[in-house]
């Protein structure tokens, strides 16, 4: 007989226990696997079955359909009320491990839900035509074109497009920073005629984003179209992660943060705050290694903060904490740090 406790399941997110059954029914009405509730204290988790076939053996269309189903369910969940999402890339474990894993984290999950559950994430996308961006560069480009060197003209056009993109991105960030709770500037992506930045606002606060767009200088807004994508739960700012931890992960995180032999919650927080502020990607635009370092520092902090809890400890004392664990987001401090460095 198959051991059902080893069947994989996926955590979607956490919500207030009082309205969880209504939310479960709303989510289960959408395409996807059946959904059940695991509850503790005044918080509950939405859990759905995960296909037993490994990802590597599922074709791309199946994976895309599954991902779209998950994101649609997350989107509806955050519109239902306070909701704390689980990162879709770190949300699975055996069915038999769910309750014992969550049992250690209900208190922390309740705090995070209260801090970040009523915030929504939006993608702000600006687009414009190359001709519009090059309008102010025509005289300089004409001089290059007169040299009859196609390669040089191509380089000059590329440089002009990138310069205009940077100028618009700077203006967009400046406008948004005064209106949104946080923004993911280091994650801005797009082509040479497109900008996409993720922002965090209070539930129902998309009007603040629209107001910010109105503050972009007119010479940079002419011919630009704006697209707001959301609302989504705060996956880029306050997502829970469900991971399987081994002792090597603990050792590596300890070393990344440069902690002494023993540490407690206060010294861990101070160390993270210092290192994260120094490595934040907004301070080093265009330098990918800084973004990687910042991510490693933050993930190391989240892991060790979860394992240490309120008690001081060392690497050796944390050995007993291996296995599946819930890694809590650093909601308020991370958001504040993001806005400070984006301003």
Explain the layout of strands and helices.
Layout: E1 8-16, H1 20-28, E2 35-40, E3 43-49, H2 60-80, E4 83-85, E5 92-94, H3 98-103, H4 106-116, E6 119-127, H5 130-133, H6 138-145, H7 150-177, E7 182-189, E8 194-202, H8 206-214, H9 218-221, E9 225-232, E10 241-245, H10 247-257, E11 262-263, H11 265-279, H12 288-308, E12 313-314, E13 323-327, H13 331-342
Antiparallel strand pairs: 1-3, 1-4, 1-5, 2-3, 6-8, 6-9, 7-8, 10-13, 11-12
Attribute tags:
globular; disordered C terminus; 343 residues; 5-stranded antiparallel beta sheet; 4-stranded antiparallel beta sheet; 13 helices; 3 domains; 22% strand; Alpha-Beta Plaits; 13 strands; alpha+beta; Helix Hairpins
Order of helices and strands: EHEEHEEHHEHHHEEHHEEHEHHEEH
Strand content: 15-25%
Write down how many β-strands occur, each being a DSSP E stretch of 2 or more residues: 13
Quickly count the domains: 3
Brief summary:
This protein is of the alpha+beta class. A hairpin with a 2-residue loop joins strand 2 and strand 3.
